[in-house]
Amino acid sequence: MSADRPYTERNDRERERLRALVTGLSDDELRIPVNEHWTVAAVLGHIAFWDARVLALADKLERGAPFAPADDEPEDVDWINDATRPLIHAIAPRDVAELALRLAEKTDRRVLDLPPERMWPDDAGSPINPLRWDHRAEHLDDIEAALEHAKGGLPDTEGDGRTSPRP
After folding, report:
1. Most buried of 12, 20, 90, 128 (most Cβ within 10 A)?
2. Could you tell me the CATH number of the domain that includes residue 77?
3. Are 99 and 45 in contact, with CB atoms under 8 Å apart?
4. pTM score, two decimals?
């Protein structure tokens, strides 16, 4: 891990968690609901969308185009997530899961190639957040919890990798 890129190891770890899920889940598991609005596959598509945003902003940076206020992530992104949900759900679950992994790989490589001083947090005005791990981890946790719930187990509370049966 480079001292000027402390996020690299965490990005790698969460990308590998993503890989394990994508390669290990059946098509039926990808259709399991995570909540009332999103399936496992759709949550992966949501992750892919936000990684794709970073790629689009990286393209802009590399072209030398200045960032505009419209490039900033709005304080409330619910409307964006709500607007993308039907599009994401229209993609076949396996296809969207594989897309999420490909975009995560591409995004992580891309942020390694960009100058750290041109990305947040080094550049507070940059809309490019190279800390992809944080967003992925949040949603991978949600997916894993939904999968455990669907299997009828309780989350691993003992730290031994086993779930407890539901009472």
Report:
1. 128
2. 1.20.120
3. yes
4. 0.88
DSSP per-residue codes, 42-76: HHHHHHHHHHHHHHHHHHHHHHTPPP-GGGSPPS-
Using the structure block, give the residue that is written with the tokens 């897309």.
Answer: 99
- Of 49, 51, 42, whose CA–CA distance to 11 is shortest? 51
For 22-77, the pLDDT digits (tens) are 999 999 999 999 999 999 999 999 999 999 999 999 999 999 999 999 999 999 99
Q: How many residues make up the chain in this entry?
A: 167
On whether residue 165 sits in a domain, the answer given is no
Number of domains comprising the chain: 1
Strand partners, 164: 154
User: Residue 38, exposed/middle/buried by CB under 10 A (0-12, 13-18, 19+)?
Assistant: buried
56 found inside a domain: yes
DSSP string, 91-159: S-HHHHHHHHHHHHHHHHHHHHHS-GGGSTTTSTT------HHHHHHHHHHHHHHHHHHHHTEE---SS
84 in a structural domain: yes
